[in-house]
Amino acid sequence: MADRAITVAAWESLFRAQVTIMRALAAEFPSDVISLNEYDVLFNIARAPQRRLRLKELNQHVLITQPSVSRLVDRLTARGLIEKLPDLNDGRGTIVAITDEGFALFRRIAIIHMEAINRQFGDTLSEDELHTLAELCNRLRLELERV
Known about the structure:
There is one protein chain. The chain has 147 residues and is mainly alpha-helical. The chain has a single domain, classed as Winged helix-like DNA-binding domain superfamily/Winged helix DNA-binding domain (Arc Repressor Mutant, subunit A, Orthogonal Bundle), CATH 1.10.10.10. Helix content is 68%, strand content 9%. The chain has 6 helices and 3 strands; from the N terminus they run H-H-E-H-H-E-E-H-H. It has a 3-stranded antiparallel beta sheet. A hairpin with a 7-residue loop joins strand 2 and strand 3. Helix 1 crosses helix 5 and helix 2 packs across helix 5. It is globular. The two termini are 17 Å apart.
């Protein structure tokens, strides 16, 4: 087991880097078109098989609380960016699917967001460092998800 002081220092460094990067990305994000949280919902649905996801699964992937997700889904549905469908395998469940309009908006914003990520994040580290960082972060996440 690692020394506590080293563990806390590593956590502090990771946390501060994440906050700084997110602030920089948020400053460049086209929030006049869509919020970061709305983008996160579209991102997760767009990556799902057939671009649809059970609402329960969406709640597990986004970075906001369940009541906030429900309100966000209602807003995105009202805007015609996603649609809510009954879950045929579970009468109590709901499926959320991205519409063609929602997917087009997602793709347009994703290009802008990826360019900002490359400027704010990718240009700082080498490809080897990026691979190592991704591997370490995935290992941390997977270990914590097992608990």
